[in-house]
Amino acid sequence: MGCAVDSSSALYKQHRLQVLTERFSELQDLPQEVFAVDPTNAHQSPNTEVLYRCRKCRRALFRSSSILSHMEGSGPTAFAHKRITESVHLRGSGPDKCTSYFIEPVQWMESALLGVTEGQLLCPKCTSKLGSFSWWGEQCSCGHWVTPAFQIHKSRVDEARTLSVGNFHTTKT
Ligand SMILES: [Zn+2]
Ligand SMILES: [Zn+2]
């Protein structure tokens, strides 16, 4: 009581996924709560969220709330064993350095994730390649190591803003 876990925070979601990878032998049966609701199944459409669609077939893939953001090229998961070359210079840390979105798993991925450690993420409708996943983690273009990683290339999806007034996230210091 009084110490409820904010289950919607990206940090919590990421932690939950990391706990999962430690029990990888059990991953034949993924708990349903790790999957974000497929946006095509959602009844209500919160109008403050950005929806991301397949660039090819316009199939709704995930919402902005599913994006697990990270500090670029830094943070505790930027391991030394995967040294990044010169790109880590923190010059103007705009989000553009990351060429991929790292998101939580969404329901349409489930069949692709079961029983395998890594693979491709394909559009559930047109099967064009959207990105890749690995329970062991993948490196973002900014140098940050994300574990586990469900990586969607930004060039493969389109943002569909449902709100004309931008609701931009400003980084608080
Ligand atoms: Zn990044
Ligand atoms: Zn598609």
From TrEMBL:
Q: Which top-level enzyme class is recorded in the Swiss-Prot or TrEMBL entry?
A: hydrolase
Q: Does the keyword Hydrolase apply?
A: yes
CC terms in the record's Gene Ontology section: nucleus
Task: Name the Enzyme Commission number(s) assigned to this protein.
Answer: 3.1.3.48
Keyword annotations from UniProtKB, A to Z: Hydrolase, Protein phosphatase
Q: Does the keyword Hydrolase apply?
A: yes
Gene Ontology MF term list:
protein tyrosine phosphatase activity; protein tyrosine/serine/threonine phosphatase activity
Q: Which PANTHER family match?
A: DUAL SPECIFICITY PROTEIN PHOSPHATASE 12, DUAL SPECIFICITY PROTEIN PHOSPHATASE 12 FAMILY MEMBER
Family to which this protein belongs: Belongs to the protein-tyrosine phosphatase family. Non-receptor class dual specificity subfamily.
Q: What is this protein called?
A: protein-tyrosine-phosphatase
